[in-house]
Design goal:
Layout lengths: L24 E2 L12 E2 L1 H5 L8 H99 L7 E2 L18 E2 L4 H5 L7
Antiparallel strand pairs: 1-2, 3-4
Length: about 200
């Protein structure tokens, strides 16, 4: 192995520099923010081996990959939006299905109520029959009350009265029979027996 001489760089074979090449390197301080590696001067950079892929090609490839990723993300977003729309549509269909189901449940509830009401129909019929009988009884009682009121308001002697059978009178007039009735007193009855004829 040859020792390094002033103005020349002797390195290992894998460094990419030939022996005897005059390379002046510029060292970057360790504390600087430029880089942690040594930066070569333009003359030294000229002898550096070319990378297999040019820098502009690598940037183009990265840009193409980013474009593909961007397109993929847009495609995923569109699919997500479509899924959201499908979910909203499904909710609407479920609402349309839920409304008839609620109506069906209400119809079943009404059927149960109708069945319960039918069980009460005989009782209601009996109640109606009893009410009709009560109305007839009230009509009879009302007629009797009206008759009693009419008899109470009528003048005396307006209606026939049955005379009870009593002991024989001391007068010469024959006693009335048991079936004799008194009507409204007239002028003949007021004159007395034997006074109506001249």
């Amino acid at each position: 192995m040859s020792s390094p001489s002033e103005g020349s760089l002797s390195t290992l074979p894998d460094t990419g520099f030939a022996h005897g090449t005059d390379v002046s390197l510029e060292y970057v301080p360790h504390d600087s923010g430029d880089s942690l590696a040594r930066r070569a001067t333009p003359e030294a950079a000229a002898v550096l081996p070319q990378s297999p892929l040019p820098r502009s090609g690598a940037v183009a490839e990265v840009a193409q990959s980013l474009s593909q990723l961007r397109l993929l993300v847009q495609d995923v977003d569109q699919r997500v939006y479509r899924c959201c729309d499908d979910i909203d549509s499904l909710h609407q269909h479920l609402d349309w299905v839920q409304v008839p189901r609620e109506l069906w449940d209400r119809i079943h509830g009404l059927d149960d109520r109708v069945a319960a009401l039918k069980r009460w129909v005989p009782y209601w019929q009996d109640s109606v029959r009893r009410d009709e009988e009560t109305q007839r009884t009230l009509a009879v009682l009302r007629g009797q009350i009206d008759l009693l009121a009419h008899l109470r308001e009528a003048p005396p002697g307006h209606y026939p009265v049955t005379v009870p059978v009593g002991p024989p009178a001391a007068s010469s007039a024959p006693p009335p029979s048991a079936s004799a009735t008194l009507s409204t007193p007239g002028p003949q009855s007021l004159l007395g027996p034997g006074q109506g004829t001249a």
